[in-house]
PLD phosphodiesterase domain-containing protein
Amino acid sequence: MTSIDDLARRLEQIDSNFDKDTQLKGQSFDKTENNSFGVPDSTDFTVFLSFEPQWPDKVPGNSADDAPTKFPSPLQRAFKQVLKAGLDTDKKKCFIDLATLFDLTTPSPPSGFFTEGGQESVASALLSAVDEIDPEVQPVIRIVCGEWSDDAPSKWEEDGKWRKTFEEIFWDGQGKSRLKKNKKAIVCVGYYRPILATVNKEGTYAPTEQWLKDRLGDVTNLVKQLNSFVTGLPNTERLTSAMQKFDAASYLTTLIKSGYLQKHISWNHGKVLAVNGKTMMTGGGNYWNCYKGDQHDIIDQQAKVTGEAAISAHRWADYFWDYLNNIPGSDSQSFRRSANLSEPPKWTEAVAPRLPTFAKDIRYGNKKVLTVSRIGDWHGKMKGVAYPIGIVDALRDALLNGVYLYFHNGGPRQQGAMTILTYAILTEDGEALRRLTEAATNIKRGVGGAVLDWFASLTRPEPSLEKQGSFNPYQTLNVNPNAWASRFARVCAIANAKESVILCQHRLACPPYAGEKVTNLLNEKWRLQDPNKWDGYLWPFDLLIAFGYALARTRNTKTGSAKITIVLATHCQDGTRGDWEDKASIGDLKKKLKVVMRGMAHLNSFTRLVPSFFTNAAAAADVFTHVDPVPENLIDKVVDERFIVKRALGNIKWYYNHCKIVCVDGRLLYVGSDNAYPSFNEEHGVWIEDAAEVDSWKKKFWNGMEARAVVPTDEPEK
C-alpha cells in the first residue's frame, strides 16, 4: 500500500523538475500534520448527505415512499458547525473562504440553501459571525464560484440573476443591511470561468486555436519517441507497422477543426468552506438548493477538518483570487465584484483582499492530511497564454482515447499495448523516460545488465532536466502535472493497492458533451464502424491502467478476497435527471479494462532479458511500483470475479450518487470534488490515512451504500 507520505513525496518530486515560478506545492497540493478530524460539535471526519448520521429504513424507496427530511440538511448543519468552530473567540479576525459550483440554469436561484431557516439559516450564521467582530476590524467573506454557461456577465449585469442571488443571501431582500455593529465587513464574489473570446478587448484574436496548432509538432515528437521505444525489439513488428500509420497530429487536427478542444472546458467545481485558518470542509456537495433541508435525493459526502489543512484550503482559494484580481483581457467570462455588507448593495470591481497570515503555533492534533486539487490558469513562463492549464490534460485524454480507437483493428493485445505505451511516454518524469529509452537501445544491442541493475535498484535516480535525449511533453510546454494533483494522487494510490480498492463515484466515463459533430468527424476520418465507432465518451485510461496494476497486485493476497468494488450512479436512459445519471455501460468499462490488461500481459512477453520491462514503462515516473501483470489466460476470470461494479440504490431513478470517494486498503480515504471521469475543472479534496476513521466511515456510509447497490444485467459491451 502507498501512504500519504508516499503520495506527497512523489508530488514533491514532480515539482522539483520545474522552476520556482512553476512549482505548485502549497497551491495544488500540501501535506499537513497538525490536524484533528471533524470539529468539536461533530468529530466524524465525513458528513453523509442527505441522511447523516445513518441510512433511513425507507431508502431506496420510490416517489411515494421517500424518507422524510427537514431543515437543517446535513450539509447546512455541517456548514454552521465548521463556521462556529473556526470563529475567533477574541473577535479580532474573521476571514472566510467559500467555493462552490452555482447552477444558474434552474428557475429558482441557489440562495435557498443559505436563506432557508430564517434566523437559524446559514446566511444568518455567516452574518452573525462578521457582525460580532471588533468594529475596528474588517471581516472578509470571499466566494469563488463558477458554472458552465457562457453568459455569466449578463446574468450579473442585465437580468441580475447572479447579483440578486447574493443580495438575497446577505441583505434583507429589500436592499437593507442586516448588520448591526460592524461597518467594515465586505463580501467578494469571484466568478472563475476562464474562456477565450474570439476577439479580446484589444481587438486581437485570442490564441487558442493557434496555440493548439503549435502543439502538433510536440505530438509528432511524442510519436517519434514511441517509435524509438518499440522499433527493433523482439516480436514488435505488428506494433511498429501499425504505429507508423498512426498520424497523431492529423487526429488532433480533426479535433481542432471540430472545435472539440476549444470548448469551454474549465470552471470552478470545488466545494470548500475555510474559516480563519482553523477549520475547513470539502467534498461533493454544492451550496445550492439541491442540498437544502427538504431535498434528499442526492447521495454525497463531505469531510471536516480542524487544523492546518484549513490554511491549505485558504491558499487554494487565494490562488484563484490572484487570477480574479488580474483577469486577462482575453477572458470574457470571469469577473469579480465586492460590496460593503453594512450598506445597501453597491457592487464594485475593487480588488479582493489576499490571504492574511495565520498562526501555526496552535496544536490541533496529530492527524496527517494531504490536500490535493486541480488548479486552472497557466504558470511561470506560460502565463501570457491565459488559458486553463487543463487543456493539456484534455489533450492527453484525447490522445489516449484516440490511440485506443485507432488500433482496434490489431486486436485487444495491440490495442491495449499501444494505449499503455502512449501513457508511458506521457509520464511525468523526463529523466526516467530517458533511462528507459537508453535501456531499450541496450536491449537491442543484446546488453541487458544495466537495465536489470536499474530496475533492481531500491531508489530511482533523481530527475534531471539537462540530460540530452530526454523528451518530456510537460517540460516542453512548461506545464507542471501537479496542476491536476488530485487526479495523479488517485491513480497512484489505486495502482499501489495491496488489499482492496473502493470507489463511490458519479461515473467513470465523461459523457459526449461535445455533441455529434465531433464524433461524426472522427468516425468518418478513420472509417470507424459499429461496434468500434466512437460514441463520444472519454475514458480515463490512466485509471484503467491503475486498475490493471491493482488487480495484479491483490490477486495473490493471503485473504484471497481482495478486489475492486465500484458503485456508480443510476443508469437511466429516459433522461429524467439528465446529468445526474450515468449512461455509459458497465459492460463497456469491463471490456476496456480487459483490453488494457491484455496489453500489459502482451508487453510483458516481449523480452526475456528484462521481465516486465514494458509494463514498468508505465511505472517510469514512480506512479506505480512494479508487479507482474495478470497472465492473459486469467484476465477474464480476474476481472469478472474481482472487479465488481454496481449501480447505486437499486438503480432506481429517484436517488442519485454524486460521491467522489476513493478508499484504498482500508486505510487511505479521499473525499473531495474531483470526479474519477475525465474532466478539467478546478477541484479540491483531501486524503487521510487512518484505519479507525475509515472503519467508522464504512459503518456509517459505505456498508449501507454497497448493500443497497445492484449489479445490473442489462449493460452489455458496446
